[in-house]
Amino acid sequence: MLQKLILKRLTKRLRQVYSDLDTPPVLDMARYFPAHAALAALYPALRAEALAVYAANPDIPLFHDITATQTRISAGDGKNWRMFMVKAYRHVIAANAAQTPVLARFLRDHPEVTTATLSYLDPGKHIPPHRGPFRGVLRYHLCLYAPDCGSDAAPWLKVDGTRVPYAEGQALLWDDTFTHEVLNPGPNPRIALLLDIRRPVTRWRHRAAFRWVMAAGWVQARLLERRMSTKA
């Protein structure tokens, strides 16, 4: 209860710090994440890595087992949302990076990526509407595996009320402090690469808030590394 109260107050304060930013929910990747083109070119290799991880690690951690504060959106419907974290708040999860060398190499070359995760959704999994707390990063989403695309059971992502249908190899960059929601209604899992990208800013309070969040998150990531890692 105390942890939730503290998190709520911190979230409110962080939103106030960034309240002067006027950017839309979905952003131009060329402007805010120029490396997206290089990453998109790696799609076949990233997809192969993600499928290999899925096959080799049946016990990829559930999101709410890594971070209890995510229980509402992760554990609400009895379906699994598993997170294979390769980098968290600038801290590389060595055991997981070893299983994803293509992704790990990209991360080494692009320090603006602060967090990198392979996100696995069970068939039927619903992530209810929610908002992220921190505008200092932008969320990049690359669909790696979604065999139900194009059918009536295609998975979708909704950002600020606009539904974005999935397509394998398709990417999106958005501000996750806007309300968003995900549903995978079909009979197959959905796998996506999620990255947090440092938002380019110039004002000192934005930069100071970013450094503080990264430092606090880095400590937390080190403490939780055992929970976040798997061994093939």
Automatic annotation (TrEMBL):
Gene3D superfamilies assigned to the protein according to its UniProt record, in alphabetical order: B-lactam Antibiotic, Isopenicillin N Synthase, Chain (2.60.120.330)
Domain spans labelled Aspartyl/asparaginy/proline hydroxylase: 43-200
InterPro entries, per the entry: Asp/Arg/Pro-Hydrxlase, Asp/Asn_beta-hydroxylase, IPNS-like_sf
Keyword terms of this UniProt record: Dioxygenase, Oxidoreductase
Residues annotated as signal peptide: none
Homology family: Belongs to the aspartyl/asparaginyl beta-hydroxylase family.
This protein's name: Aspartyl/asparaginyl beta-hydroxylase domain-containing protein
Organism for this UniProt entry: Pararhodobacter zhoushanensis
Lineage summary: Bacteria, Pseudomonadati, Pseudomonadota, Alphaproteobacteria, Rhodobacterales
